[in-house]
Design a protein that fits this description.
The complex is a heterodimer.
Chain A (H helix, E strand, L loop, with lengths): L7 H7 L6 H26 L4 H23 L7 H26 L1
Chain B lengths: L1 H6 L12 H26 L15 H26 L3 H31 L8 H33 L6 H30 L2 H4 L1
Helix pairs in contact in B: 2-5, 2-6, 3-4, 3-6, 4-5, 5-6
Classes of the chains: A mainly alpha, B mainly alpha.
């Protein structure tokens, strides 16, 4: 049976110091600004800007916000990679579900 | 002796070298991605199925934007609570934990208000396929927020009884509840864009 395999080399590879409260505040400010940009893009769309310009930007901002929370607030950037693999695995499966449903909608 | 266990590195002696509770929480969150992925997909699938009922034009974007901002800031409060307990400052921990729970309650109050307005304007749970998909998706998220608020309330209360203190075991518990709370936040980041912001005609 496999027991704990944490070695100094392993720790050096994956363990880092956590961010400071100031870093967290900075991330929160960025998240707030990105949310304001998203809402601004929505109103730009309502004002007549074509979706081809607003939708990719909305998706991009959402992905950035998602990644910021996962990497900084959930510490995936600093924590063991096994957690990232578990989470990204679930995300990939969710995206497959979405792709299948999208295909059903289009076809 | 208990002190031997508590002084050891977190997760020492486990198969992955990390606390089993934390590993379990991440596995749970991975499965939750599938859960919400399915609901978001169903919402997109039924977006055009409004029947005779109201469609996405009923949404109040300024109101929901404020709710979204509150939930985002609750994630900041949660991570501050974790930093406080890791610093051994229980007073600061209690303040941030209570703040997180109150922001969660504010978000939930906004959701209840939003639902009330929708029902008054003729969009109930069974009005159309669209309304069912909307209410199921957002209310399941709301249930997750409610569970998070209950867990935060329990943490706050137990910090007074001594069951939550500055020990490694307590820090792991707070970290796990924090992970759950941040997950609820990032799911809302997706819902806010897909449900409220992206133009309907493009999705249909």
């Amino acid at each position: 049976m496999t027991q704990s395999t944490q070695t100094p080399e392993h720790e050096g590879e994956e363990a880092h110091s956590h961010p400071s409260p100031g870093d967290y505040v900075m991330i929160a400010v960025i998240l707030a600004v990105l949310t304001a940009l998203e809402v601004g893009l929505y109103w730009a769309g309502e004002a007549g800007t074509p979706p081809v310009a607003t939708v990719p930007a909305l998706v991009f901002l959402t992905v950035v916000k998602f990644a910021l929370v996962a990497m900084w607030f959930m510490h995936l950037r600093f924590d063991r990679r096994v957690f990232s693999r578990l989470f990204v695995g679930g995300l990939i499966l969710a995206l497959i579900i979405y792709a299948v449903v999208l295909a059903m909608t289009v076809l | 002796m208990a002190t031997d266990t508590e002084s050891a590195a977190p997760g020492a002696g486990t198969n992955f070298g990390v606390p089993n509770e934390k590993m379990g929480m991440w596995a749970f969150l991975g499965s939750e991605c599938l859960f919400f992925g399915a609901f978001i997909s169903v919402y997109v699938l039924y977006l055009g199925g409004t029947g005779d009922g109201p469609g996405p034009a009923i949404f109040d974007i300024p109101f929901t934007s404020v709710s979204t901002f509150v939930l985002l800031m609750s994630s900041l409060a949660m991570v501050m609570a974790l930093a406080a307990i890791q610093d051994g400052d229980m007073r600061r921990f209690r303040t941030w934990t209570l703040g997180t729970a109150l922001m969660g309650l504010t978000f939930l109050s906004g959701q209840v208000y939003e639902y009330t307005v929708f029902v008054e304007e003729g969009m109930g749970l069974t009005t159309s396929a669209f309304s069912t998909a909307f209410f199921v998706l957002t209310s399941f998220h709301g249930v997750h927020v409610s569970i998070g608020v209950l867990m935060l309330g329990a943490l706050w209360f137990m910090s007074f009884t001594g069951r939550i203190d500055t020990s490694q075991r307590s820090q792991t518990a707070v970290e796990n509840i924090g992970l759950y709370w941040h997950f609820v936040d990032i799911i809302w980041i997706l819902i806010f864009t897909v449900v409220y912001l992206i133009p309907v005609d493009l999705l249909t």
